[in-house]
């Protein structure tokens, strides 16, 4: 931040970025720059790094491209910023733009009031019309950084916006020229970006930022901890203020939401928290957590009195705290990783440090990736694993110590990501995890040690055994900044500083272990050392048969690779081992949860945690009997538990594993909500109760183990082997065509031509295209309300009339049954008879059965079965990927005998398979299903909810079938598939937003939507529109009472309103209104407040449904209170699904502070941009 001669503050995109990080940071910047008030006394924290070298490299990078552009363009202009005033520079820039210079260097921009300004490295003339004439300009900016960052996008968006005002229209694109050189071309990589994907976020953020700067004296804000604190230049000032104010945020592990709860009770200091009488206040905070916070506050008070740091060890349950410390071994390793989060989806692990006894003394060893390139990262990982493998083979009783989850998580991700090129990495990391060789000392400290200090970071805890660190780098956040500078400067000094920082962390981890062992030996001798229950050793273990097969497949695929098919072969290689990688995180998470307390698992959405038993005497549930009066099921005992309200995925009828106590499976019979709690009725058999002796108390239920996927794995192997064999490589033509992403092969239509003749009947054209598919595949993209289910059913019936054998599949039985219902309905109406089967798992106990109008009658069209046999007289079969990849189990003579399998039931014996909701079906499952058929039809919309992927997969392996085909395109091209362009749900105003934001403006409202109106009983509200209703609240995360009350207020006013649609007139009732929230906690609050007859649920639950009026409640107060990552919360797909449930009216309610989220990734900026578009629909009640 700078000021001019008149004392006016001058603003830049960097200042804007800082504002999104923290408003208090900006206020201090203003006071410091203007030297006002306390600004005269403010002192910035010392920065590290070689910024001069970075600036020098950046200037060289710009000069290099200036010379390249001068060679390319003869008519150019260079704005001299050293010899002219800023006003002169601006006038010269405008003049050069209007003259139509081909290239302008150092173009100077400033907005209307002259406060916001900046220099664009280059403006390049393009042949796009504007107010200037037949030309306009686009911004090109050079950055020495190897990969683009959000700050870079803010800069070029700022220049593009100011350029747009001069030329009368926004540029279509803007460009970053990075410091990374393309290996093939030898040129620096240029990244193009669409301006409209960032402009709304930029304008909104800049407007709030400038208002704040103009009114900073009236902004009464107090500093709160946030993610930016780790690298903020004002952190020392804030910590000084918190200490002087005795602010409650000094209590380690206290959450922002808990602070807000304490504030409501006027508890804002650690002194008041220390004096709190626990049984006289109800803060809706877990009693054990509250007790821990109080003890910690007392330690802070003691530190104030004695001026000495304080700590206290507390007793823990077996398996926690000191119980996690293994017996020390001379060959133990102390491990730390340095990572760079701003690269790719998972970040970049560039430094692995080890501190260990190499024979004579303790030494430090490290592995450094010399470039920000995945090839170097992989090589570095390989070197690390080979070193560790040899070490543990030689020292099988040693352990790998680290601090916090980062190291373990990073190794898991790396091992999965590189598993197709280095399978030994995954194999070894899995061994380390299975044999529990990782020792997380953070978990030990967190569970048994309380301190008077601000947090439990290693740098803080080491005060108790090491003293204050005197290194150039003092935090992980600072190391990231330094690595960023090293990437740009390649400074040897910076590199050594980072390595030294990593070394200090490794040594500190070793000293922490010694400190904890000393305390254990003094006061907790009775606690045994951790010992794995099975005495297994790390060794060069024989690989499983599956792993051996996968390695052979990978080697054989590599031999088939050539220039023409290398992308196809790489895709197949990345799919090898897909199911194993997909299941690994579930097993790993299961063991990670065992290290946590019940209270900690409340934030884990895969669990429902910390339930208290409220009934000692169980109710009895008799087993249901079949028609013959017998039952294979057993009677069950039902117990009641009370859980704190939390976000989870459990539903009635599902089962969960009691993960911390008995490890047994319990069935959830019923879920009810009351106040701040959820009441679960869980059941088990009496024989199981005898085995566990007593019911667990407390109880935390987690997910079951992943379902076995042997048939799906075999299907993938079958396909790859067919490709490797020249005789069978064309057996699966449709799947081949799909994976190569060929144009659809349609008889009678030249490849590359549009598939649909727009002048003819659309439905008949669709039927004709599918009928004429010739050993190929087709995509039908159905945006919300376009009738893809109806059209699919219509096509399937027409194919059935031609005696075609047809399959129907999807990820969920719900989607399959929905399509079957439509087929049955049309068939009854047309008096068309056929025989079909729906294949269900026997374990589902009928929950997934198809229930149609003819089900169970003598005229039954679709029969439920658990058998995979496909009768000859059947024309239709429906089931998931498991059904279509199923192989018969051959009889075994003994239980120990290895299971053998017959040939797959479905293998090219169907004419067509329709995969519904194909955007949620993985690429691997799409292939497994596709092997059963000669023609493959994918129906769905990749712009709606995506497939749930848990594993880390390279290349395209983690995508859905639709994502793979469309390659980041929003809509299917005319010559590659069918786009259903008319929605019968959305009125014009809602459709315009959805179409422009998600469907490249191709989606149009059907004429029947013109008749839909809702005459709201609200002043100044129209009868069809989107309305953004802003609301202010603090400390809300997964639930907001304020938003519930606002919705209820509007709800009561619009009930009984008149509406009109294509069916006539009526009055708005409960069933006409839908309410959507991202979290189950908020859903519960809404259900309690609103009428139970209403449609209320999460986006996931309500996809496929619709309402005349839709409320959307986004609950969180700001980005610091978002409980999940921003890419999930602001998901473009989720936003699309939420808004597109509405026929006439959308009330979108969220706190505007959410839009000031600091973006760590460019993708997050694009997601927030979609939400910022909603601001033009703002309406105040």
Topology:
Layout (H helix, E strand, L loop, with lengths): L1 E2 L5 E2 L2 H9 L1 H12 L16 H22 L3 E3 L7 H14 L3 E8 L6 E10 L9 E7 L7 H18 L5 E9 L6 E7 L4 H16 L20 H11 L10 H9 L5 H5 L12 H20 L4 E3 L19 E8 L7 E10 L4 E7 L5 H21 L5 E3 L3 H12 L5 H12 L3 E3 H8 E3 L6 H4 L14 H14 L2 H32 L21 H16 L5 H10 L2 H16 L14 E6 L5 E3 L14 E9 L10 E4 L6 E10 L2 E9 H7 L6 E4 L7 H15 L8 H8 L21 H10 L5 E6 L5 H14 L4 E4 L3 H18 L5 E4 L22 E4 L10 E3 L2 H4 L25 E6 L7 H8 L2 E8 L20 H6 L10 E4 L1 E2 L4 H11 L5 E2 L7 E3 L9 E6 L10 H14 L3 E4 L2 E4 L5 E4 L3 H10 L5 E3 L1 H4 L4 E7 L12 H4 L2 H8 L2 E9 L11 H11 L9
Parallel strand pairs: 3-4, 6-7, 10-13, 13-14, 23-29, 23-30, 24-27, 24-28, 25-26, 25-27, 28-29, 31-32, 34-40, 37-38, 37-39, 39-40
Antiparallel strand pairs: 1-2, 4-5, 5-6, 7-8, 9-15, 10-11, 11-12, 16-18, 16-22, 17-18, 18-21, 19-20, 19-22, 20-21, 33-35, 35-36
Q: Could you characterize what this model shows?
A:
The chain has 1181 residues and is α/β, with parallel strands linked by helices. Helices cover 37% and strands 18% of the residues. The protein is built from 36 helices and 40 strands. The strands form nine sheets. An eight-stranded parallel sheet has the order 26-25-27-24-28-29-23-30, sandwiched between helices. A hairpin with a 7-residue loop joins strand 10 and strand 11 (348-357). Helix 6 packs across helix 36 (1162-1172), helix 18 (545-560) packs antiparallel against helix 19 and helix 25 (788-801) crosses helix 26. Mean pLDDT is 91; it is low at 626-632.
């Amino acid at each position: 931040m700078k000021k001019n001669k008149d004392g006016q503050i001058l603003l830049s995109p960097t200042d804007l970025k800082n504002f999104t990080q923290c408003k208090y940071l900006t206020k201090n910047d203003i006071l410091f720059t203007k030297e006002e008030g306390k600004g005269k006394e403010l002192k910035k924290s010392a920065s590290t790094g070689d910024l001069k070298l970075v600036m020098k490299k950046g200037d060289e990078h710009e000069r290099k491209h200036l010379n390249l552009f001068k060679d390319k363009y003869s008519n150019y202009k260079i704005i001299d910023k050293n010899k002219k005033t800023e006003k002169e520079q601006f006038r010269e820039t405008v003049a050069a733009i209007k003259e139509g210079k081909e290239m302008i260097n150092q173009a100077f921009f400033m907005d209307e009031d002259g406060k916001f300004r900046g220099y664009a490295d280059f403006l390049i003339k393009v042949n796009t019309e504007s107010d200037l004439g037949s030309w306009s300009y686009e911004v090109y900016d050079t950055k020495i950084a190897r990969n683009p960052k959000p700050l870079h996008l803010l800069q070029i968006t700022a220049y593009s916006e100011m350029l747009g005002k001069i030329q009368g229209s926004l540029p279509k694109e803007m460009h970053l020229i990075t410091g990374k050189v393309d290996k093939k071309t030898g040129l620096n990589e240029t990244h193009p970006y669409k301006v409209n994907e960032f402009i709304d976020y930029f304008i909104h953020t800049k407007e709030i930022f400038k208002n704040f700067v103009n009114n900073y004296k009236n902004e009464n804000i107090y500093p709160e901890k946030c993610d930016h604190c780790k690298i903020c230049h004002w952190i020392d000032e804030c910590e000084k203020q918190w200490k002087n104010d005795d602010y409650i945020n000094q209590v380690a592990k206290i959450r922002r939401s808990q602070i807000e709860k304490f504030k409501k009770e006027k508890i804002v200091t650690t002194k008041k928290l220390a004096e709190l009488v626990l049984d006289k206040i109800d803060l809706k905070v877990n009693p054990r957590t509250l007790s821990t916070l109080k003890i910690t506050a007392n330690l802070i008070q003691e530190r104030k009195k004695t001026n000495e740091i304080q700590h206290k060890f507390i007793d823990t349950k077996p398996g926690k705290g000191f119980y996690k410390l293994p017996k020390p071994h001379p060959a133990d390793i102390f491990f730390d990783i340095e990572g760079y989060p701003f690269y790719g989806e998972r970040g970049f692990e560039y430094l692995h440090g080890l501190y260990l006894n190499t024979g004579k003394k303790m030494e430090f060893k490290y592995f450094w990736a010399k470039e920000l390139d995945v090839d170097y990262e992989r090589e570095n990982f390989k070197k690390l694993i080979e070193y560790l493998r040899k070490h543990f083979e030689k020292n099988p009783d040693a352990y790998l110590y680290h601090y916090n989850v980062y190291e373990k998580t990073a190794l898991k991700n790396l091992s999965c990501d590189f598993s197709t090129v280095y399978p030994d990495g995954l194999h070894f990391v899995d061994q380390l995890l299975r044999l529990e060789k990782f020792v997380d000392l953070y978990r030990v400290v967190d569970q048994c040690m309380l301190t008077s200090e601000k947090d439990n970071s290693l740098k803080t805890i080491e005060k108790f055994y090491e003293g204050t660190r005197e290194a150039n780098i003092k935090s992980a956040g600072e190391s990231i900044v330094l690595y960023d500078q090293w990437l740009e400067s390649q400074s040897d000094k910076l590199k050594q500083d980072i390595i030294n920082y990593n070394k200090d962390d490794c040594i500190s981890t070793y000293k922490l272990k010694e400190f904890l062992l000393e305390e254990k030996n003094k006061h907790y001798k009775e606690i045994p050392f951790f010992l794995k229950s099975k005495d297994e050793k790390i060794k060069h273990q024989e690989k499983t048969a599956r792993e051996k097969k996968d390695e052979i497949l990978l080697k054989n695929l590599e031999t088939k690779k050539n220039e023409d098919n290398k992308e196809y072969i790489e895709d197949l290689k990345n799919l090898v081992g897909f199911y194993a990688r997909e299941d690994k995180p579930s097993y790993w998470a299961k063991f990670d949860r065992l290290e946590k307390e019940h209270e900690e698992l409340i934030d884990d959405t895969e669990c429902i945690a910390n339930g208290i038993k409220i009934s000692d005497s169980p109710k009895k549930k008799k087993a249901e009997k079949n028609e013959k009066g017998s039952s294979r099921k057993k009677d069950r005992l039902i117990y009641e538990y009370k859980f704190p309200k939390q976000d989870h995925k459990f539903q009635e009828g599902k089962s969960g594993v009691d993960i911390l106590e008995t490890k047994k499976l319990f069935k959830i019979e019923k879920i009810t909500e009351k106040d701040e709690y959820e009441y679960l009725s869980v059941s088990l058999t009496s024989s199981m109760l005898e085995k566990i002796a007593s019911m667990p108390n407390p109880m935390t239920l987690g997910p079951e183990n992943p379902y076995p996927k042997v048939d799906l794995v075999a299907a993938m192997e079958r396909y790859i082997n067919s490709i490797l064999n020249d005789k069978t490589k064309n057996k699966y033509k449709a799947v081949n065509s799909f994976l190569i992403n060929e144009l659809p092969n349609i008889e009678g239509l030249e490849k590359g031509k549009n598939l649909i003749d727009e002048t003819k009947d659309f439905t008949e054209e669709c039927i004709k295209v599918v009928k004429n598919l010739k050993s190929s595949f087709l995509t039908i993209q159905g945006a919300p309300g376009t009738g893809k289910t109806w059209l699919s059913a219509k096509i399937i019936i027409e194919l059935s009339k031609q005696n075609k054998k047809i399959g129907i599949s999807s990820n969920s039985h719900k989607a399959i049954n929905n399509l079957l219902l439509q087929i049955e309905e049309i068939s009854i109406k047309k008096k068309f008879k056929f025989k079909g089967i729906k294949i269900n798992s026997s374990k589902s106990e009928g929950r997934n059965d198809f229930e149609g109008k003819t089900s169970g009658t003598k005229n039954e069209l679709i029969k439920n079965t658990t058998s995979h046999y496909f009768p000859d007289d059947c024309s239709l079969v429906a089931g998931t990927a498991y059904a279509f990849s199923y192989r018969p189990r051959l009889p075994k003579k003994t239980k120990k005998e290895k299971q053998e399998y017959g040939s797959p039931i479905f293998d090219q014996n169907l004419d067509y398979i329709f995969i519904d909701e194909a955007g949620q079906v993985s690429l691997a499952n799409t292939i497994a299903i596709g092997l059963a058929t000669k023609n493959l039809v994918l129906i769905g919309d990749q712009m709606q909810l995506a497939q749930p992927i848990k594993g880390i997969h390279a290349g395209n392996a983690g995508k859905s079938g639709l994502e793979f085909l469309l390659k980041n395109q929003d809509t299917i091209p005319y010559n590659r598939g069918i786009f259903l362009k008319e929605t019968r749900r959305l009125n014009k105003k809602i459709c315009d937003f959805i179409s422009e934001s998600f469907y490249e403006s191709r989606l149009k409202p059907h004429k029947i939507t013109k008749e839909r109106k809702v005459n709201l009983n609200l002043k100044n509200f129209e009868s069809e529109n989107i309305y953004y209703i802003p609301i202010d609240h603090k400390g809300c995360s997964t639930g907001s009472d304020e938003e519930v009350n606002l919705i209820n207020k509007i709800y009561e006013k619009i009930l009984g309103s008149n509406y009109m649609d294509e069916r006539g007139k009526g009055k708005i009732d409960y069933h006409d209104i839908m309410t959507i929230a991202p979290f189950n906690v908020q859903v519960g609050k809404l259900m309690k407040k609103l009428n139970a007859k209403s449609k209320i649920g999460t986006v996931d639950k309500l996809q496929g449904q619709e309402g005349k009026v839709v409320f959307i409640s986004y609950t969180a107060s700001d980005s610091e209170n978002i409980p999940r990552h921003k890419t999930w919360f602001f998901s473009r797909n989720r936003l699309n699904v939420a808004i597109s449930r509405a026929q006439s009216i959308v009330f979108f309610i969220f706190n505007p502070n959410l839009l000031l989220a600091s973006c760590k990734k460019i993708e997050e900026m694009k997601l927030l941009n979609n939400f910022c578009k909603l601001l033009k629909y703002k309406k105040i009640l």
